[in-house]
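Subject: Scarecrow-like protein 28 structure
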Amino acid sequence: MLAGCSFSSSRHQMSTAQRFDILPCGFSKRSNRSEGGGAPRVAAGDARNGGGGGATCSFRAHPAPPVTQAVSWGAKPEPGGNGAGGVWERSSRAVKRAHEEGAGEEYGGPVVRAKRTRMGGDGDEVWFHQPIAGTVQAAGGGEGEEPEEEKVFLVPSAAAFPHAGPSLAAAKEEEFSKSPSNSPASSGGTDGGSSAVPPPEQHARNGVPAPGAAGREAMELVVALTACADSLAARNHDAANYYLARLGEMASPAGPTPMHRVAAYFAEALALRVVRTWPHLFDVTPPRELTDGAVGDDDATALRILNAITPIPRFLHFTLNERMLRAFDGHDRVHVIDFDIKQGLQWPGLLQSLATRAIPPAHVRITGVGESRQELQETGARLGRVAAALGLAFEFHAVVDRLEDVRLWMLHVKRGECVAVNCVLTAHRLLRDDTGAALADFLGLARSTGAAILLLGEHEDALNSGRWEARFARALRYYAAAFDAVDAAGLSDASPARVKAEEMFAREIRNAVAFEDADRFERHESFAGWQRRMEEGGFQNAGIGDREAMQARMIARMFAPGNYSVQAQGDGEGLTLRWLDQPMYTVSAWTPVGDGGGGGSTVSASVSTTASHSQQS
């Protein structure tokens, strides 16, 4: 059973889990998928052309931009506009005007520009799509609003994907009437099944209350997303064009249900994939923020928000800390190597636990790896203040480099230290190397530190391998549950905190759906997949004990009681946090095969081409 987003009618609440039971999230098998793209899934050509059978959802030839700068598309039409074949945004207003004149002549209408508004201050500003900003301003009185700036939010719309013809609901009703799965017995979700929407009376037969207007539209969004993905897999750009236009009309990051919001970000990812699949049909260079994976302070802010409204960060951090403390028992000098430390939210709790021991360690060292020198320096200073307040002898060492480029000498491992390697939501990025060499090198580096334990916290999902359509379906289920979990915190639709948290998941969605090969680094694996990879890399499972499990369940009960649960993997080999019936995150512990651990290689501290920062208390 799948978990996902919830939406409400007057008396009943139905989650995406229930909708996915009714609405298959798979993709129908096609007997003849041609490279040129067949007919669209909806037979809209006759209706649009009076039965003439002319070309319908086709892409228009793109105008060549006068200069090569980043452009964007996918905005809502401006008032009074009659649509355009392309939507563009440029930093230079002179270039905009010049391009608008050329595009207007070719398409017979104005070019529409996408805008987002930045609101907030003191380093915690949030970017909104223009309609969302209006909603927030209306709700909050407009205080603290900064001047409007242009920033892309790549959601397709009718302006970007021109079409005409029957509504999606009518097309779906026709599909359902022709589908062999329109009987009550065939309404369960299976891969390869029809994506037709069951009528309201079928909801009653399944024991699920019929949804209201927002609920019906949310189900139509799931249908449109899966149909669009199916069209992309079949390389049918006409059908993809149709569904992207419909998604742009219905989905919104400020929608009334979590499904509306998650669908907006999936539509954005699908639009990016269309651009990358058919570059000869689009003259679009998406802004760098959508393609380079750089997140800056956004993820740091989102993690703080998630830490306050969900158990996700606490489950990962506190459960792994408890297992690490068990590995540190009896050791006087301890060293934690965090291969993606970010703001170091995990470590104040560990320092406090070490300080309250009957015999605190004589020396605590934390090595933090990251790509931002400033963030590492701030993290080290903050942890140093915490350690000083607790009376711990503490040293922080920063390594400014990519995870793939870290070497043993950079880590400053000392003889006699008990070393623990910590990997939270970072190891999956190494899987973009299809040969497996990157992960093998990393596990070899972990072994060479003489680590007593390696702690792993990862998404519990299988988005690394398999057919793209199947990966898309799994991603949709997973992130529908994530948006449901954020929605359960009770934040208002106009809350900047909710937007920040959802945009963090949106960045993962964008990369997992739109990109391939080395550009796709959101390669989530299931626990079974990680177990196989860790064993191949020379590690064995060290188990998660009853104490860690008890703490994890206590954390889960602190948020949305009854919705979160913690389930053991195998015979205590790991712990998985679940939202309803959807597995979300798994933690596990590993030790090198044949190594006792607890020691470390002596590495010269005098060699350093990597920026480092040490702080003694």
